[in-house]
Design brief:
Number of strands: 9
Structural class: alpha/beta
CATH class: Alpha Beta
Number of helices: 8
CATH superfamily: Class I glutamine amidotransferase (GATase) domain
Shape: globular
Radius of gyration: 24 Å
Mean pLDDT: 91
Oligomer: single chain
Order of helices and strands: HEHEHHEEHEEHHEEEH
């Protein structure tokens, strides 16, 4: 009889232990799912020639650095891509002392971030399904390559079809020029948008150099365009589309993108 009691006790203890282990495993799996890292694709230009001038262009450092650190500091996994892959060109003017910010100064001393710029992933082959969101920094470069890139156009349309957050800052809304929505109309049609203004382009004396003006294009494609004073922070959100007016709007655009990601994953 004593042996029977011992066996029953052992089975009871084993049962409780197994149950506890099962609950622990379920809790660990649940925590792992909750802590799943967010992934964001940053797309830079590969174009470095400023129209027919002898000057160089590329992406604007602040428009990469500000969103990069805003996302990185929140644990987001970032992939940096460009049409050609390899080294993405930095607009020399964005490296001037007058254009330095806290984010650009951090970038200047960050070898890891600099290596990402030196070794961008080639845009062809990138799939929207592998990322939670996409962010396009500006600079004048995108007006020449990404605006006409069928690879970029198809990628943005895929992100939109999957209803994933998409952000475009300063000149980057130019890449939406040929992008269509699911109905085959311009993506920005009927959407609240912003981007580098005609007055800001005039202020940097490049109105007659660029292939088209971002403000004009967004309006012509049916966008509900808004703007603030030159160089003011201005970000517009409409559904999964986020647009920023200028370099100073980069950080806020990234913060809005991050908040949308957190809401989608809560």
């Amino acid at each position: 009889m004593k042996n029977i009691k011992l066996i029953v006790l052992a089975l009871t203890v084993f049962g409780f232990t197994a149950c506890a282990e099962k609950k622990k495993t379920v809790a660990e799996n649940s925590t792992a799912e909750t802590e799943k890292k967010l992934t964001v694709l940053l797309v830079l230009t590969s174009h470095d020639q400023l129209g027919d001038t002898d000057e160089k262009t590329g992406f604007w450092v602040e428009e990469f650095a500000a969103p990069y650190y805003a996302l990185l500091d929140e644990g987001v996994i970032i992939t940096v891509a460009s049409p050609k892959g390899g080294k993405a060109p930095i607009d020399p003017r964005s490296k001037s002392e007058a254009n330095q910010t806290e984010a650009t100064k951090r970038f200047n001393g960050d070898k890891t971030a600099q290596q990402l710029i030196e070794n961008t992933v080639k845009l062809q082959g990138i799939k929207a399904a592998d990322f939670d969101a996409v962010f396009y920094p500006g600079g004048h470069g995108p007006l020449w390559d990404l605006a006409e890139s069928t690879t970029s156009i198809t990628l943005i349309e895929a992100f939109n079809k999957q209803n994933k957050p998409m952000a475009f800052v300063c000149h980057a809304p130019a890449v939406l020029k040929e992008v269509k929505n699911t109905e085959g109309e311009p993506l920005v049609k009927g959407k609240k948008v912003t981007g580098f203004t005609n007055m800001e382009e005039e202020a940097v004396q490049l109105t007659d150099i660029v292939p088209f003006l971002v403000e004009d294009m967004l309006k012509e494609n049916g966008g509900i365009y808004s703007k603030e004073d030159n160089w003011s922070v201005h970000v517009v959100e409409d559904g999964n589309l986020i647009t920023g007016q200028n370099p100073a709007s980069s950080k806020l655009a990234a913060e809005i993108l991050l908040n949308k990601l957190k809401q989608n994953n809560s």
